[in-house]
């Protein structure tokens, strides 16, 4: 799909001398050796060091660091329960880097030897190279003292992360699924992020079973379309996908409105927290914006878990509906990143008018939502957080005088904008 | 126009046709109508009970016994042999496909019947949209719904649901209105049906499999629930308590005779045991319910009750106001009376409107509307205890797309304009058609 097919865009006539820029990786664009500098009218759809968020090991490192910092500051967000688990920031499954944290991992593994863990290569996508283990012997070769394979030296061992496998995912129709949500970030400092309302669920074609005999069956455990589409039962009409609105209807009908609202609030919360975690280390180049693919799994207690963030979510389509969704996604993304369809100017204030949001909704007003917000309001430390908030939150400070009420009304339900209009 | 006339002439011959089709399939494929499963097969099926969708029996030789369009042909050929010229004069000018002069409501009568759908009454599906503050209607409506549930008042629930049900209360409200409460004996009954399925294989089972695979499995909303559909429909076909509804149905259950005893009543058995032969799309009656109930025996009970109260009328011939014949006539009359230009135009180009809308009504719009909209529609079916709203909605859809339809010049083009209903909002359409159009 070319830019040309989106309304309002046209290809420049060949005659005019446009600075030619061959398609390259973002690393090359920003590398010191290339000596290339983006001019004011050029913007690019990646941040130079997006891997701080999108590499599995770095994402976990940054979140752990962020949590520790909050703890040091004494922030109420970093509060823990009696078991030492973060109350508001426990949204990533316990994760270790291999081979670096191998011994730490073994210690944790021995605490609950019947648990299952999932091994993921740090730098791969589409489910490649992922496998499940439930015995230490299955990952011997990542042991730092490994003498088993003498020809495999430390440096050539591929970096993996190992996470506690969520073996109690919420099942619908007996099948495991995950959520793919699109999040657009136009700047990290101040944090301006938007969530696409039209996310979707990806279902496995095979019924879920935690049985150890099926640990090797990727069709049971991995929801990536790249994997599922090779399954026998893959259907090309619906592609095993549900819209997030379907999910919402199903959960409201079977579980109730409050718990469903709470679930979606938590999802928004963890997206924003993950962005806040990497914001300090991101190269917030003004030429950059990025549309991430967030993968979230919901467990059977309706708790959402952040699995990973993708910098280049697939923009190909597996079904007709998919094609429409991705078309609109690209269209809405470009409308926010490059306002009014004019020649970009990276110096603009990155505050798009509300009319161009399309199917995006603003996420930046983070502290007003989710479990952390509820806690803050109870404590009366609301004002303090606002004061620490970033630029996008500034406009809400002027409304402090109004009664907070039940979190500003209609932002909980399907199809309603997250940015609350205080009544 | 009496029930008996229709019953003896057309329903009878239609039933004979269906049965003949079933029997010939049985002979052609050399498959018995019913057989006991060997123990090994029983065990296998029991293990697979929760994932029958993964079974891949060879269904290529099975065809649905009939599809809605076959049934439409039968309805089109219905005539009342007792028709007298003195009967409703206006009927002589009826230009639709249905040629049976049943009494149907006009818009003033519909406005009275559906008074709670009026412009000044709050509705879910309209007054809970993002632009409307919830204090105006939604919050209070939810509160009343909770009260109705707390008091377990079935009649009040039926009245309440005319304005739509909040998503979180719908499952309980429907159960209350349908008088379903999952008692231990209900769960036991379902388990017995399940045992029946495990022990005996019926030819109709293959028809059910095929139907699910052709319809629900390909549906964007319902594919997730494929396995529940087998669990419900296979049990349904063995449920002899369903035979009870034939007492008020003009149809009679198909009968089969033990080999060699043809015609001897004492050797007659109903086939399938519940007397209902599934047609193409039948599984779509169950699919939307999976959004509300995930406990198999509860899902089963709700479906069964919905079937014997409402759905059976959509594929049997009768003169009942909620019967499919009346609905077709109501639809055509509404169109011809209130949208005459559109009606004549479509007729001219060989696109009789009923040919397009029939399939929507037979399926109660399942698989055509988005699920949240469908559930709002079925709320009103329960609330008014009538299927007439299906005909009104069908007419409202035509009215909504009238401008585009006036420009088409063929049946295929008309079908294309009306192919995708998934973006329609049901309640505004109904309200505008009934209460905001100049009649």
Automatic annotation (TrEMBL), chain A:
Region (Disordered): 389-423
Pfam families reported for this sequence: TTL
Localisation per UniProt entry: Cytoplasm, Cytoskeleton, Cilium basal body
SUPFAM superfamilies assigned to the protein according to its UniProt record, in alphabetical order: Glutathione synthetase ATP-binding domain-like (SSF56059)
Domain of life: Eukaryota
InterPro entries, per database record: TTL/TTLL_fam (IPR004344)
Keywords from the UniProt entry: ATP-binding, Cell projection, Cilium, Cytoplasm, Cytoskeleton, Ligase, Microtubule, Nucleotide-binding
Family: Belongs to the tubulin polyglutamylase family.
Name of the protein in question: Polyglutamylase complex subunit TTLL1 isoform X3
From TrEMBL, chain B:
PROSITE patterns linked: TBC_RABGAP
A Pfam family it matches: RabGAP-TBC
Domain called Rab-GAP TBC: residue spans: 164-385
SMART domains listed in its UniProt record: TBC
Source organism, top-level taxon: Eukaryota
Gene3D superfamilies, alphabetized: Ypt/Rab-GAP domain of gyp1p, domain 3
Protein name in the entry: TBC1 domain family member 19 isoform X3
Species assigned in the record: Panthera pardus (Leopard)
